[in-house]
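fyi for ur records
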Amino acid sequence: MMKIIRYALLGVCSIFLLSGCSSGKEADTPASSTEIKVSVTAKSDPATSETVSTRSSDTQTTQSSSETESVASQGVRLSDAQREQINLAFLEWAGQRAAIGNMAVSGWYFDHGAAGRGDWYANTPDGQVQVQNNGQPGKSAFPIRAIGGCVFYTSKDGGIGEQELAAGSFAENYSVKMDFTKPVSKYLLGDNGVVYELKSGNGEMLSTNTGFGEYVDDGSIGEYTPGVAFQISEDQAAQEKLQELIQRY
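which gave:
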């Protein structure tokens, strides 16, 4: 009789144990499922994705606008200080070239006397090159801006290499030191990386404003236009030198 009671008690305990285990498994399942759903939602939150995308787009737009405003022409973006450095380095190189050919060279390739408030420019096969910016019509109106330039010539006093050509007065100009019976070449350095050249001399007189014109005060083209255009220089060494100097910046 006692054995029967013991077996009965063992059976009841087993039933309770199995019921408890089953209940525990059922409770675990929803918790695991909920945890997975939260994880997926966090990774694919559309609101977060849209916010990041919008901020990225705004940043790109701001950068693009800034770059557009900083580009003054179709040439490279150079500061005034960089233009001056390139021009001085080119002039130094030109001085060595001139000395080899028993010629002189000067950085006084452009100048003018009393004038209006319009921009000064030169004509080239690639378009107008702004040589002096007075804001009329302004640098953005020109496809190319001048980095600088120089003029090769034969000096009356026999000087060779880099020389000081500037005269005592603007009226005297080139006539004081330049031999007009010999070839004269003005080099114009464009920020598009091209050297333009104006050949003269050989009996023809010229001055610092030869090859250049000026816009009128309201920024329109008036009567004072360049009498002659610059051409792309055939001096390959000069072209390569300008490219080399620009690439440093």
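The chain is about 40% helix and 20% strand. thats all i got for now
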